C-alpha cells in the first residue's frame, strides 16, 4: 500500500513540509552581526563556512503565510463532507526569491487554497503576493510578491554534481520560527517517493538536515550558500529522513511554467536553446517569419547576453525578463553574433487568440460539458465586497451537458467558475489555455472552484471521462 502525505504527521508516513497551525507567533530574526561588527578578530574560527553560507542566502528566503481551508481530522477520518468538516486555519511555508522584481518559487501545496497570500521578507516587511503559475504535478508554484524596490535573490548552484555525504543546509520557517537553519548531509540521490494514489515525486535528494512543517518551498544549500534544491517533504515517524527537489529539475519546470505564461500574453516569434544551469547560455534556435523577432533583426544562432538591464545566463533569465514585458514595449536585447555585440529593440506584440469565442465554447462543451460567459466587473466587485475576497473574475455557467464531467461533479447553471487545477478562469481565453495545456491533456483529477449563492465550493473534475463522481465540498470553514 502506498504511503500517504498528510498535513498531520501523526496520521501518515510522509508529511508536506508546509505547516497548518490554528495559532502561531511569527518570530522575526534579529539582525545578524558578523564577528568583525562585534569587534572580534577577522580571523575568528567562529565564522565558519556554514555561517557564511547562511549569511549569503538568508536575505532571499521569505516566509509565506495566509489562511487556507483544511478538512478537520475527525471529519476526515469519518468521511464527512458537509460544511462542518472544514475549517479556516493559518497555513505557512517558505519561498525563495529568484528575481529582484519579486518573483518567488515555492511548493504548490504551500499556496494551494490560500485566499490571500502574505509574504514576510527577510527585513521583516510583510506584503501580499499573487499566484502567477503552478505545476500541480511537480508541486511547484511561482508567485509575484508586491514590492516597490528590488530585493535580494538566491545564489543558484547546480544539482548535477551532488555527492552523497556532502554537507547541506536547510533554511525555512519551521513551525513558524522564521529563518530556522539546520545542517546535515546528502544521504542519498535519485529517490522516487510515492505520496498518494495520484502523486509521486521523482529523482529527489534525500537529506539528514532537520526539516519540519513550515520548511516547504525553502532552499537546500550547499556549503557555498548556493541553492541546490527545494525542500518538500519528510518521512513521518523517522529521524533525519527528508527530501528536496533538485534545483536543476526546479529550474527546468519553472522555466517551462513561465514560457507557457509568456506565450499566452506575448508574440515574439523566438524559439531558444539553453540548459537549466546558470551559465548555460541562451541561443536563438528559430525565428518565425513576419514575427517581432524577425522584423527587429534577431537571427538564428544569436547568443542572447542581455535583455534590458538583465544579464542572460540561461533560459530562466530570459523567461523572467520577458515576464516583465508587456505588449507595446520596445524590449532592448543584446546578442553576440559572429564575435560582435549587436543591439536590437524588439517591440512586443500581444499573442493572438488561438481560438475564437465559438471555438472555446465548443471545446468547453465537449471536454467538461459547460457553456459559460465572463462575469461582469460589477458582479465581481459585488462578490468580493460581500464575501471579503479578491477574485479577479470568473465565468458564469449558463448550461451544463447531461452526463458530462461537470454534471457528474455537481456543477450547475448559475454557478461561477473561478479556477481549474491552480489556474484562474477570469476569461474564456483563460479557460481555453487551461483545457489546451499539455498537463491537462494527460487527464488529471483537476481541482476546481466555483461560487454558488455567495459560497465558495470546490471539487475534483476528471477531465478525461472516467466513471465515478466526487461531490462538491463546502470550503468556507
Protein model, in words:
The protein has 477 residues and is of the alpha+beta class. It is globular. The chain is built from 11 helices and 30 strands. The chain folds into 3 domains: 1-33 and 48-246, Thrombin, subunit H (Beta Barrel), CATH 2.40.10.120; 268-350, Pdz3 Domain; 357-474, Roll (Pdz3 Domain). The longest helix is centred in the middle third of the chain and has 19 residues, at 247-265.
**Proportion of residues in β-strands:** 35-45%
Q: For the terminal residues, how far apart are their CA atoms?
A: 31 Å
Main beta sheet, described? 7 strands, antiparallel
Helix content: 10-25%
| CATH architecture descriptor text of the largest domain | Beta Barrel
Quaternary state reads: single chain
CATH topology of the largest domain: Thrombin, subunit H
Question: Helices, strands, pairings?
Answer:
Layout: E1 5-6, E2 14-16, E3 19-21, H1 49-57, E4 61-71, H2 73-78, E5 86-99, E6 103-106, H3 108-111, E7 117-120, E8 126-135, E9 140-145, E10 167-174, E11 177-194, E12 200-207, E13 219-221, E14 227-235, E15 242-246, H4 247-265, E16 266-267, E17 270-273, E18 282-287, H5 292-295, E19 303-307, E20 310-311, H6 315-323, E21 330-337, E22 340-347, E23 349-350, H7 357-367, E24 370-374, H8 377-387, E25 395-400, H9 405-408, E26 416-420, E27 423-424, H10 428-435, H11 438-441, E28 445-452, E29 455-462, E30 473-474
Parallel strand pairs: 1-2
Antiparallel strand pairs: 2-14, 3-5, 4-5, 4-7, 5-6, 6-9, 7-8, 8-9, 10-11, 10-13, 11-12, 12-15, 13-14, 14-15, 16-23, 17-18, 18-19, 19-20, 19-21, 21-22, 24-25, 25-26, 26-27, 26-28, 28-29, 29-30
Protein name: Putative periplasmic serine endoprotease DegP-like
EC number: 3.4.21.107
GO molecular function: serine-type endopeptidase activity
Amino acid at each position: 500500500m502506498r504511503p500517504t502525505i498528510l498535513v498531520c504527521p501523526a496520521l501518515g508516513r510522509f508529511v508536506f513540509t508546509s505547516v497548518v497551525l490554528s495559532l502561531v507567533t511569527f518570530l522575526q530574526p534579529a539582525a545578524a552581526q558578523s564577528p568583525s561588527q562585534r569587534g572580534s578578530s577577522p580571523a575568528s574560527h567562529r565564522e565558519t563556512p556554514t555561517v557564511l553560507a547562511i549569511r549569503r542566502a538568508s536575505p532571499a528566503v521569505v516566509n509565506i503565510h495566509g489562511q487556507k481551508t483544511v478538512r478537520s481530522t475527525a471529519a476526515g477520518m469519518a468521511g464527512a463532507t458537509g460544511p462542518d468538516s472544514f475549517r479556516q486555519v493559518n497555513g505557512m511555508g517558505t519561498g525563495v526569491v529568484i528575481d529582484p522584481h519579486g518573483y518567488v518559487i515555492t511548493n504548490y501545496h504551500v499556496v494551494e487554497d490560500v485566499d490571500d497570500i502574505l509574504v514576510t521578507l527577510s527585513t521583516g516587511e510583510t506584503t501580499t503576493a499573487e499566484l502567477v503559475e503552478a505545476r500541480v504535478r511537480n508541486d511547484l508554484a511561482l508567485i509575484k510578491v508586491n514590492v516597490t524596490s528590488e530585493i535580494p535573490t538566491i545564489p543558484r548552484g547546480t544539482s548535477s554534481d551532488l555527492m552523497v555525504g556532502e554537507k547541506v543546509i536547510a533554511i525555512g520557517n519551521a513551525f513558524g520560527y522564521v529563518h530556522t537553519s539546520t545542517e546535515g548531509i546528502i544521504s542519498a540521490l535519485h529517490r522516487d517517493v510515492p505520496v498518494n494514489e495520484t502523486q509521486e515525486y521523482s529523482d529527489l535528494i534525500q537529506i539528514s538536515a532537520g526539516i519540519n512543517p513550515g520548511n516547504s518551498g525553502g532552499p537546500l544549500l550547499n556549503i557555498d550558500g548556493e541553492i541546490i534544491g527545494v525542500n518538500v517533504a519528510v518521512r513521518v515517524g523517522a529521524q533525519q529522513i527528508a527530501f528536496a527537489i533538485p534545483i536543476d529539475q526546479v529550474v527546468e519546470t519553472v522555466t517551462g511554467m513561465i514560457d507557457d505564461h509568456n506565450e499566452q500574453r506575448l508574440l515574439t516569434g523566438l524559439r531558444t536553446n539553453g540548459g537549466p544551469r546558470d551559465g548555460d547560455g541562451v541561443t536563438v534556435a528559430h525565428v518565425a517569419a513576419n514575427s517581432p523577432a524577425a522584423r527587429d533583426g534577431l537571427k538564428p544562432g544569436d547568443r542572447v547576453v542581455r535583455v534590458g538591464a538583465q544579464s542572460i545566463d540561461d533560459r530562466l533569465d530570459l523567461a523572467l525578463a520577458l515576464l516583465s514585458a508587456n505588449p507595446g514595449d520596445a524590449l532592448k536585447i543584446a546578442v553576440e553574433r559572429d564575435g560582435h555585440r549587436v543591439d536590437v529593440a524588439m517591440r512586443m506584440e500581444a499573442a493572438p487568440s488561438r481560438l475564437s469565442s465559438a471555438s472555446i465554447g465548443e471545446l468547453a462543451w465537449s471536454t467538461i460539458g459547460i457553456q459559460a460567459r465572463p462575469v461582469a466587473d460589477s458582479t465581481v466587485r459585488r462578490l468580493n465586497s460581500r464575501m471579503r475576497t479578491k477574485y479577479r473574475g470568473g465565468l458564469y455557467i449558463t448550461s451544463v451537458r447531461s452526463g458530462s464531467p461537470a454534471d457528474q461533479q455537481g456543477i450547475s447553471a448559475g454557478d461561477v467558475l473561478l479556477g481549474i487545477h491552480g489556474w484562474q478562469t477570469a476569461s474564456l481565453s483563460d479557460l481555453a489555455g487551461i483545457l489546451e495545456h499539455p498537463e491537462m491533456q494527460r487527464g488529471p483529477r483537476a481541482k476546481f472552484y466555483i461560487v454558488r449563492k455567495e459560497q465558495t465550493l470546490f471539487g475534483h473534475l476528471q477531465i478525461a471521462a472516467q466513471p465515478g463522481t466526487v461531490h462538491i465540498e463546502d470550503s468556507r470553514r
